Automatic annotation (TrEMBL):
InterPro entries, per the entry: IS1016-like_transposase, Tnp_ISXO2-like
Membrane-crossing segments per the record: none
Domain of life of the source: Eukaryota
Domain annotation ISXO2-like transposase: ranges: 9-139
Annotated source species: Amblyomma americanum
Name of the molecule in the record: ISXO2-like transposase domain-containing protein
Entry coiled-coil feature ranges: none
Length: 166
């Protein structure tokens, strides 16, 4: 699932919203694992969102979005060519769950609400620190309390993977 919003502001209907007024947070949510990846972006447009998808989603993945025009994924390509994504959409002006396909964006919306609460608790309104707070939300979605008995050891493992010793 793909979603986006403005940190500290309600993200409702995007029609008429200035796409250049950032920073924005764009995100991906994996239903199978609960992993939530959030990215600080300065421009909320189709090109920016498509770059996040091509960099973080495998070809032939099912992607669920609302029907905002920036999510036109029919011809999305990565370095290897056509990504051949299965793209389900839901029109929030009519339903929050598509009655035919069952498609919905409720998981990414819930993940975004949790992320915003973390930003409020940690004072994550600084532009300079926003991406680090979003990274923490990602880390917690993969290594959080429900997935690890010893968070310190999981953090050490994550650091070791990121910065391997030679």
């Amino acid at each position: 699932m793909v979603g986006d919003g403005v940190p500290g502001r309600f993200n409702g209907n995007y029609d008429g919203v200035d796409e250049d007024r950032g920073p924005w947070a764009a995100g991906l949510y994996w239903v199978s694992t609960g992993e939530t990846r959030l990215f600080q972006v300065e421009k909320r447009d189709g090109g920016t969102l498509k770059a996040i998808i091509t960099d973080n989603v495998l070809p032939q993945t099912k992607v669920v979005t609302d029907e905002w025009r920036g999510y036109n994924l029919e011809t999305l390509q990565d370095a290897a060519g056509d990504m051949d994504l299965e793209h389900d959409t839901v029109c929030h002006e009519v339903n929050f769950v598509d009655p035919t396909t069952g498609a919905h964006t409720q998981n990414i919306e819930q993940a975004w609400q949790k992320a915003k609460s973390v930003l409020v608790r940690t004072g994550g309104h600084s532009r300079a620190l926003l991406q680090s707070h979003l990274n923490w939300v990602w880390w917690a979605s993969v290594n959080g309390r429900t997935k690890c008995q010893d968070p310190f050891l999981r953090l050490v493992e994550a650091v070791a993977r990121q910065y391997p010793q030679k």
